[in-house]
Amino acid sequence: MKIYTRHGDKGETGLLGGKRVRKNDARIEAYGTVDELNAHLGLLRDRVSDNSTVSRIQEIQSILFLMGSHLAIDPKEGSSFNLPNWPEQMTAHLEQDIDKMTAELPELRNFILPGGDSSASHCHIARCVCRRAERAVVALSTDDDVCLRSIEYLNRLSDYLFTLSRYLTKMNKGQEILWNP
Description:
4 strands; two-stranded antiparallel sheet
């Protein structure tokens, strides 16, 4: 099978289920940004040495792949794809990790500049893409049906990535730079 189909050469692509839409459609923007986030998390995963963090990032990537699949289906059209349901504890896992990392970090009383060390910088980039993905899914939800759990998850994921950036800075003996207006 060839990787190219030429079906998108005129600016259209197919959703799961077969419906054709323009490549700048809000649904394509939403799941494309989720896919971009997933790629950034792969880069971050490759920079982290802690096995539990690597496992959590892989879990997050799987959830984002599932999210993208759900977003790639037009709810008005339906689909013959039998996609898995959302994992029940997906947001709770992030919250537990945030709480665990926060307990080991100094209290944050100022804004910090993105950075600290290279893995923390990758976290900050992923966090920014996560916020963009969240905005894209919210924008899609104004005109179309979207599972609200995906918005909740992306919101919590950006918090997780911020906290993880601080945690990795500490673990890697980096330095948080406080914003000085």
